[in-house]
Amino acid sequence: MVAKIRVRWVIFIVIGLFLALVLVDSMGVFDNRSYYEVPHGNHTHFLPKDCDPPLPVSNGPTARPGPGEKIDCQGRIVPE
């Protein structure tokens, strides 16, 4: 009887940890890219994460930055 209760708690804890990991990942904590993707109709815009004021979606490039490139706050893809 005690073993069943213990197993049930272990299962609940494992499921809870998994759900917490999924939640944290969905917030982008593990994402180290300097931009994020915004689906916009039949295409995707790529916007920089750290601009003040933020770049409007329509001003973001539709091409993904390549290795060694980043998106500046004017919406241009420039070398890092």
Précis, in short:
With 80 residues, the chain is of the alpha+beta class.
Any chance you could write out the topology, listing elements then pairs?
Blueprint: H1 2-26, E1 35-40, E2 43-48, E3 69-71, E4 77-79
Structure description:
- The chain has 80 residues and is of the alpha+beta class.
- It has one helix and four strands; from the N terminus they run H-E-E-E-E.
- The protein has one helix at residues 2-26; strands spanning 35-40, 43-48, 69-71, 77-79.
- The strands form two sheets. It has a two-stranded antiparallel ribbon. The chain has a two-stranded antiparallel sheet with strand order 3-4.
- Strand 1 (35-40) and strand 2 (43-48) form a beta hairpin.
- The relative contact order is 0.12.
Could you tell me the mean pLDDT? 91
Q: Give the strand content.
A: 15-25%
What oligomeric arrangement do these chains adopt? single chain
One letter per element, helices H and strands E, the order comes to HEEEE
Basic shape: elongated
How many beta-strand elements?
4
What integer value in Å does the Rg equal? 20 Å
Structural class: alpha+beta
Uncertain stretches = none
Number of discrete helical segments: 1
Through-space gap between termini: 61 Å
Q: What spatial order of strands do you see in the largest sheet? A: 1-2
List keywords for this structure.
4 strands; alpha+beta; 31% helix; two-stranded antiparallel ribbon; two-stranded antiparallel sheet; 80 residues; single chain; 1 helix
